[in-house]
Design brief:
By secondary structure, the protein is α/β, with parallel strands linked by helices. 45% of the residues lie in helices and 15% in strands.
């Protein structure tokens, strides 16, 4: 669904970012950074100047990986039929002149005094970066540009992002998590306990028939569990134990005594002495149990009841999120599980669905069902690829916990992280996994970290060539269509084959007691190895023994 950026509808969209001390335009920019640059909310807010007198600067974002500094100006117009001409763009161009050099930037800091732009420039350490990074202006508006503005942009280093572009490229970060409909439970003869928090939030807790639970809509296609931090984990020991207890009629009467229960959130919960009714509902805890019950429903008897907590709560409220998190805060739940419903992951998954539905699927939670005949890429694998290639730290990829804990925002919360980028990195990694076992030193060739270390070498090689740089900066061009992907993979096979030969030379004479496991996670060793491989590749290109990236790309088209 496209966002309505007209005024005053836009005020509802940017409401989470508004405050009495922040202008509407600043809130709009924060919303833009969160939804299009993929920053988390905290970082998006940290990028903006939300006070008046900030020298025409509304925000600054430094992309360390790309070596760019984006200077923002944002405008919200209340006039539906208006447009952005060249006047405001020329004024913005004057603002950008303050970022042309260390001297002009220092003058800006000196003249700004205590306004936020000065402290933001200092915090981002722009004085040390301004000469080495590319600076560009980004003008964001809820209007489109007119012909005068378009003509001016041809001569200015300004990117204009207007209403039409935002509507066209918007990817929602919201899950369609509620199963719409009504469900009834026979509670005749059992006690249901009521607990009220306030007039709108309440709970009904009691042992309900398993035969009623398995009738809930959305179990078969797993849509009932979209808000759960995990999907079905399959045939695990815990799930086997649940299944065995369901298949044993002697245990049915005692089932509520040893089972933790199920938590259901709904828009409405009501009951009398005979019937409990819920409307518009979803399950936040109990996915494994409900799946086990559904798969073994033929064994369910009238004695099998499950202690179930039905909670009436506003779906998008902070309390519903708190219930989801705390009800899953138990052994066996990983940091990755708690990020499965994070807006960044939801948006990436929707991007995969939009652009790669027939070829790839993006798994954000363990046990999540994937479309048939697609290649599944988990967000954990994506995180490892991004650490190795984007953050250029392959020696740390053995510490998987960092992906969804302290480095989550650094890894995923960047405008560069798109479905296109993940697909392209996956393709490179697959070629590496195919070619590396050809090494004479099989211990290194088949070691998992070798793939990630060589991913850094591939990046360094791509950086040697204009076409390679474009592959890094614009993965969409090389990943979207199956034809271009096939050509990219063919090119990579050529480049990586040569890289593996050089790696073979570097590793075949190592001593038998060489600590490859320690060395391949040692920064100094990996950097030295990568540098040696890249230097060898460059020599081969100069001697015409191996093709450059551009030449290999052209050859792959044949």
């Amino acid at each position: 669904m496209k966002p309505d950026l007209s005024y005053p509808a836009i005020l509802e969209i940017i409401a989470p970012y508004k405050s009495n001390k922040r202008t509407e335009s600043a809130a709009f920019l924060a919303w833009y950074l969160a939804n299009y640059y993929r920053l988390d909310n905290l970082e998006a807010i940290d990028c903006i100047c939300d006070q008046p007198g900030d020298k025409g600067v509304d925000g600054i974002y430094v992309n360390e990986g790309a070596g760019t500094i984006d200077i923002f100006q944002s405008k919200i117009s209340q006039k539906a039929n208006s447009s952005i001409g060249d006047t405001q763009l020329k004024e913005f161009h004057g603002t950008l002149a303050q970022f042309q050099s260390v001297e002009s930037l220092q003058n800006l800091i000196n003249s700004a005094g205590d306004v936020q732009v000065a402290s933001l420039i200092k915090r981002l350490d722009l004085l040390k970066k301004i000469e080495d990074y590319d600076v560009r202006g980004v003008f964001v508006a809820n209007l489109d540009i007119d012909h005068n503005g378009s003509a001016y942009l041809k001569t200015a280093t300004i990117k204009f992002v207007g209403r039409s572009e935002m509507e066209e490229t918007y990817i929602s970060d919201q899950k369609e998590q509620m199963h719409t409909g009504e469900a009834e439970f026979d509670i005749f003869g059992v006690t249901v306990s009521d607990y009220a928090v306030d007039g709108e939030t309440k709970a009904a807790i009691g042992p309900v028939l398993a035969s009623d639970l398995v009738k809930l809509g959305g179990i078969a296609d797993q849509s009932l569990f979209s808000a759960n931090v995990r999907a079905s984990l399959g045939n695990t020991k815990v799930n086997k134990d649940i299944a065995n207890s369901i298949r044993n009629p002697a245990l049915h009467k005692a089932f509520p005594l040893f089972h933790n229960g199920i938590t259901v959130l709904a828009k409405s919960v009501a009951h009398d002495d005979k019937k409990l009714t819920i409307k518009d509902y979803y399950v936040v805890n109990g996915c494994q149990s409900l799946n086990a019950l559904h798969l073994n429903r033929e064994f369910i008897s009238g004695d099998l009841r499950v202690l179930t907590k039905f909670i009436q709560v506003k779906v998008d409220s902070d309390l519903s999120e708190l219930i989801t998190t705390y009800s899953n805060n138990q052994n066996g739940v990983k940091a990755r599980d708690f990020k499965s419903n994070h807006p960044i992951q939801t948006r990436l998954q929707k991007e995969f669905d939009k652009f790669y539905a027939t070829d790839y699927s993006y798994e954000v939670k363990r046990g999540e069902p994937q479309a048939e005949d697609t290649i599944s890429i988990s967000n954990e694998d994506a995180g490892l690829l991004l650490i190795a290639f984007d953050l250029e730290e392959p020696w740390t990829t053995h510490r998987k916990y960092q992906i969804f804990e302290d480095r989550y925002a650094e890894i995923f919360g960047r405008p560069d992280v798109t479905a296109d980028r993940i697909v392209l990195l996956h393709e490179i990694a697959e070629v590496l996994r195919e070619k590396l076992p050809e090494l004479k030193n099989q211990l290194i060739g088949k070691y998992v970290l070798t793939t990630f270390d060589m991913l850094l070498a591939v990046r360094r090689i791509l950086e040697q060539d204009l076409v390679g740089k474009e592959m890094i900066s614009t993965p969409k061009k090389f990943a979207r269509s199956p034809e271009m992907r096939q050509r990219f993979r063919k090119m990579m096979e050529s480049i990586i084959s040569a890289l593996v030969i050089d790696l073979d030379v570097e590793t075949q004479d190592l001593a038998d007691d060489f600590d490859y496991r320690g060395k391949l996670r040692d920064r100094e060793y990996v950097v030295g190895l990568v540098n040696a491989l890249v230097a060898s590749y460059r020599k081969d290109v100069m001697r015409k023994k191996t093709p450059s990236i551009g030449e290999a790309w052209e050859e792959a088209a044949k």
